[in-house]
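Sat 14:20. Reprocessing the chain from the morning session after the first attempt stalled halfway. Input below, unchanged.
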Amino acid sequence: MTKKPTTMKTMQSVSPRSEPVQSRSIKRTQQILEVTSNLLETVGLNDLNTAIIAKEVGISVGSLYHYFPNKHAILYAMGKSWLDSIEEVLNDIEEWPVESLSLEDFIDQVVDINLRTYRQQKAVLRLVQAMFSVPELRELDERHDDMVISQMAKVFKRLGINKHIRERERIARHYLEVTHSSYLVIVNQNEQRATRTLQDLKIMLQSLLAHHLKSPE
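Finished this time. Tokens:
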């Protein structure tokens, strides 16, 4: 019996139709992203589609396609914008006088500045889940991890962790996994629970980094 060839799902394009240059187009693009953020929170990824987005924006689906070819392209633009904000945070940290900060002050500042970025992104948990689960967005998830690990490995050296680059990258990956998951929990907790979880996170980071500061190279 002859087997039928397996058909692979074609990846959708995530490139916008064109870069908006006119003020009206820029505003409309931003409106589409904001509406999609709200819908991602309320209806979820699976039920999100261009028809719902267009209706909420107040335009036709055809008009929406002038800006983005599909919902994944909109989500990609959202994810890229969030990654840009993460990169800004990492660039800010790079300018800090890390060498003169106590470990406690460093942890307080690095957690607070990152958490602020997570809180500013609407539907950040669902967006991150989409970046991980949707093949068209997976590149963003990988870029996020690589960017944080690379930058924090450099920062850890300035902090006094004088280990081989691969070991510092391993520590940075552990740091990433702990902080990233904690931030996603904290932004969805009420104020009291968020405060306690934030304290726990800082204690864990204190223990992790203090251990490697004391251990031999």
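The chain has a mean pLDDT of 92.
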